[in-house]
Amino acid sequence: MNAQTPHPATDATSVSAPVSTASEFCPRLLLVDDEPRLLSSLYELLRDRDYHLVTATCGSEALAQLTKVKFDLVLLDLRLPDMSGHEIMDFMNGRGIDSDVIVMSGDVGIEAAIGALKRGAYDYLRKPYSREELLKTVENALAQRRLAVDNERIAQRLETSERMYRSLVDSSPDIIYTLNQEGQFTFVNDRAYQLLGFTREELLGKHYSVLIHDEDLERARYVFNERRVDERTSRHVELRLKCKGNGIERTFSNTLLTMPMNAIGVHLPEQSAQAHYGIYGVARDITDRKRAEEVISYQAYHDILTDLPNRMLFKDRLGLAVIQAKRKLTELAVMFVDLDRFKLVNDTLGHVKGDELLQQAALRLKECLRKGDTLARQGGDEFTIVLPELRDRTDAKVIAEKFLESLQKPFDLDGHQVHISASIGIAVYPSDGESIDELLRHADIAMYQVKALGKNGHSFYHNSMLDMSHQKIALEQALRRALEQNELEMYYQPQIDVATGRIIGAEGLMRWNHPQRGLLSAGEFLPFAEENGLMLPISDWMLGALCRDLLQWNAAGGEAIRLSLNLSPQYLDRGDFFEKMRGALTRYGISPAQIEVEITENICIRNPLYAIEQLNKLCQLGVSVAIDDFGTGYSSLSYLHRFPIHTIKIDQSFVKEIHDEQGHYPVILAIISIARGLGLHLVAEGVETEIQARYLQANGCSTMQGYLYHRPISLTSFIGVLQQQAPEHLRTELAPPVLAAFQA
User: Fold this and answer.
1) Same domain assignment for residues 241 and 387
2) What is the side-by-side order of every strand in the sheet holding 28-32?
3) Binning pLDDT at 50, 70 and 90, where does residue 727 land?
4) Which end of the chain is more exposed for a tag (fewer CB within 10 A), N or C?
């Protein structure tokens, strides 16, 4: 080899260049010849072109290069000193070395050429060859190789694309399918098996009707068979599809899937627009959505607690019963049932046990009814019943007596034996009214008549009972006068920090100084106020009274404490509630930090988003928020962390269950854990015994209110109690201003 011919060992650039670079941008050639002059001339002939050239003078060097580097083309002399070119090609074929070979030989025999071509040589050049012949052969070989590489790359991309497409189609959450002109499946993805239980093999070639629910077949035929060629080729329809099961029918024995199917006409491009080729469809499983809609619809017309029809559904059924009775000239009865002594049970055992009592009572009432009768929960402890197609009033009387008899048996509420009764009012169509509202109102009046006569009984409505309505109107007027004549008063139940024994706040509770009946608690008149639309003016008064009482205490120079105000759901729903609060605080000069608003859990589920908005405004104002009677409502914990709450109050029904200081009361512990996890202040209500106090304090609740410490007391007494905990030097300073304020 002459000086101009680089030895393979020294051709570092060529040998070490990346394979992908050589193959993609610049072909890599191996020149093998034992004649130095021929090798040098070959090298010089090719060096000016964009090739990477590597040379070898013998077979061993050629094999070494082929082992290390990937070459696009090998120019191979057949006669080498250590082995033949045929042996090198055998080596390449045995190792699967993908390189094209152009054989160059001075051998005039045909056997050498045939042997080279049999071993896969691209071409055979006989020495001496012309310059043009060599260059043309090399260019053609490389061009064919580039074309083969490009074709392979395209094929790989197509294969990758197809794999990706199939993967996307098979992993789609929807069923993707195609139908031919006869409505037979030509393609369906794996989702059909996952959702319906049918494999692809079971469906291909089958008519789409094998999957369609029998009741939806006519609609399916209309959608799939209608030929549309305009812009409305896309159609949408909901169809129920059969699921493969163990039964012969293999339909909806256990699983029912409701599917909206988007069917799109597919046309062959070479045919006319009128030639319908087939259908491409996407079926999406909306079973969960349909079930959710059914649940929502059911809950809209049923009471969540008792699973009975609610007031809305009851009125619908009563309306249909009235129409039917009018057509058939028959009678029907409407009953209004109010549970006696329920409030006592609810206040004594707590709301949870009260709810259990309502559920058990509803089951007993339902067992007394005939087929076709409707029992509904009107609200609270009130139930309504419609008894269609009465033969006479005796039918209604018999059922009412069954109600009373079934309720006489004691109710077991986790070991507590509870006895209740019922007051039942009955109105009969058409003699006691011909409209829904008339019948309900008169049944309600009859029920109140039973209550007035001692409860635990039933009575049919008659016109003389209207006096009861007049009494209710009189009570409403008396409550309105109470607002005007300042008969209402705020009482306060102190909240104690048991670690220090100091009063750190108080809950404001309303009292009515009734001229004839004396001091009435809020529970005796507020339910009536809510029913008759008086909660808004009463709440306005309560907010003003709380601010005035705080103003007196602050003016006397007392220690800053926080007073809590129970907020009626009706008052929160009022659009100007926030402005009322801000106006009162500004008018009386009260710091918002001294006010805490108490809401019940049920406010959180009435209209949670609106409640969050209103309470956020309060918090921005500086007023804190507490959840009263926590754990007795039906609010979702998922909403709890979204509400701007500062305090959780443990309901007294849970506290009353504490009888053993070493006992385990999981509800109490759960509420304490929730408060701690959310970083909220915790107050226990209804603490009446030392055992209860010690158990609560030992488990992390240090703020309490209840008869163990103080009953609800008037403002005068409350300030007196606060003075007792004030430092000695402040007591004499506080007393005269405070007394003067009350004398004023």
Assistant:
1) no
2) 52-56, 28-32, 73-77, 100-105, 123-126
3) low
4) C
